[in-house]
Amino acid sequence: MKKIEAIIREERLDAVKKALEEKSYFGMTVSEVSGRGKQKGLTLQWRVGEYRVDLLPKLKIELVVLDEDVAPVIDAIVRSARTGDAGDGKIFVLPVEMAVRVRTGDRNEAAI
Amino acid sequence: MPINTGDTAWLLMSSAMVMLMTPGLALFYGGMVRRKNVLSTIMMSFACLGLVGLLWVLFGYSLAFGTDHAGIIGGFNYLALNNVGQDPSSIYASTTPHLAFMIFQAMFAIITVALFTGAIVERVKFGSLLVFSVLWLAIVYLPTAHWVWGSGGWLAKFGVLDFAGGTVVHINAGVSALALVMLLGRRRGFPNDAMEPNNIPMVVLGAGLLWFGWFGFNAGSALTSGGLASSAFVATNTAAAAAAFTWMIISWIHKRPTVLGTVTGAVVGLVAITPAAGFVTPIAGIAIGAIAAVISYYGMVLLKIKRGVDDSLDVFACHGLGGIWGALATGIFATVSVNAAGADGAIMGNWMQLLKQLVGVLSVGGFAFVMTMVLGKLVDKVMGFRVGQVEETVGLDISQHGERAYGGFLR
């Protein structure tokens, strides 16, 4: 089992969800996060003058999948989240030791 | 004189409208600070309703408006509202109950104290601020209100015009704010860290309430409900409109037309028209408002950006500079055709009035600055005026009030 963490643009969420649904991946957790990459962020205005906000709002999608599903899921996210401009996000893949379904107590593959 | 019910209704309504300005100011200020300091900033204004509202009826009104002593201060004859009843005063607002005039004046004292707190938000110790506010009301506000508005006050006799408090309220608060900033110093992290306003819509709501209440402030200061109140009402709205529009354009020329800037412009226009509202023609409000926006905008650039003075919510630039311009503008644009009890200004050929206004600005501004320094130093010595490093970092909402504005996960 692997956990896929994808940081994406807020406005690409619907496209990413749709791309995953088409491959029958439904479960996910989405959270609002702030972050920065190599891009410099935004310049905002006060009454006079400006200030820089370098942490920009993004969404983080987390989903846990079987090892063989990692490649197609990543592929779906990359295709649907990409705009080609700086700030499209990142995907990280992590090993998962165990998964448990709270309702039944099922473990691992049966739980995801 | 017998009581005039129209005048009384308008004065009571105006008092209620000016009261609403203080919670309005709380929102105006509260939206501009970081989210960890929203409640503390709101509290600094709202607490004045509790504190000054008491002090005013106990001794404040008496010392500002009681029997004159050498043009400097009022007497004790109205202490705890003694001799202030349902009949009109023989001196002030002679067509309305004395109580109505007294409570109208109370609302001015309340908001004046609330105004200067904006300069030192996010770092001032709440208890010390309350103690300072009591001292400041007694030693700065009450005498200066007497000088300008009290029967026998030396600036009133000298001929200084201040229709609704440009000098007493705005110069007083603005100059004192600057002194407090010099005393307390910058916020930790200023000017390098980004200090983002937590809720600009709240600032807009606050500005809207201020604009609404300002009709009570200025048109109510006619103390009657006829032509003069109407003239002051229109002058007020016109100046606010001109200043909001001007600020928007300046902001646009520099980059984008910001909401924060536009509503700030409105408030600056309202400040500037305050001393002039009942002495100038309504159309003069255009020049007074537009010039106020320019002065305040570039004053802010100079003070905050160029000099790095952390007057956090720009109280000096808005109320100090706006108030000084308004006081001088009164000496320029005043005409007796609007108000026979006023005077002609420079445009009518009477340059002396401008000089008188300058004396008003310098005496009240100078007195407020020096006394605020003295009182502030005293409070700092005795109890510390500023919170500690940890309290400032955590935020004043939690460290001073044990609350937070926006709840967490437990819904």
Set down the secondary structure blueprint.
The complex is a heterodimer of chains A (112) and B (411).
Chain A (H helix, E strand, L loop, with lengths): L1 E7 L4 H10 L6 E7 L6 E4 L4 E4 L2 E10 L4 H12 L8 E6 L17
Antiparallel strand pairs in A: 1-5, 1-6, 2-5, 3-4
Helix pairs in contact in A: 1-2
Chain B lengths: L4 H26 L7 H28 L32 H19 L9 H24 L4 H5 L7 H19 L15 H20 L7 H28 L4 H15 L10 H23 L8 H19 L17 H33 L5 H6 L1 H6 L10
Helix pairs in contact in B: 1-2, 1-3, 1-7, 2-3, 2-4, 3-6, 4-6, 4-12, 6-11, 6-12, 7-8, 7-9, 8-9, 8-10, 9-10, 9-11, 10-11, 11-12
Task: Characterise this structure.
Chain A has 112 residues and is an alpha+beta fold. Chain A is built from two helices and six strands. In chain A, the strands form two sheets. Chain A has a four-stranded antiparallel sheet with strand order 2-5-1-6, with helices on one face. A two-stranded antiparallel sheet of chain A has the order 3-4. In chain A, helix 1 packs antiparallel against helix 2 (70-81). The longest helix of chain A has 12 residues, at 70-81. Chain A is elongated and about 60 Å long. Chain B has 411 residues and is an all-alpha fold. Chain B has a single domain (5-404), classed as Ammonium transporter AmtB like domains (Ammonium transporter fold, Orthogonal Bundle). In chain B, helix 8 (227-254) crosses helix 10. The A-B interface holds A 44-53 and B 194-197, 251, 254-256, 258, 260-261, 264, 297, 300-301, 304-305, 314.
List keywords for this structure.
heterodimer, A: 112 residues, alpha+beta, Alpha-Beta Plaits, 4-stranded antiparallel sheet, two-stranded antiparallel sheet, 20% helix, B: 411 residues, mainly alpha, Ammonium transporter fold, 14 helices, 66% helix, 0% strand
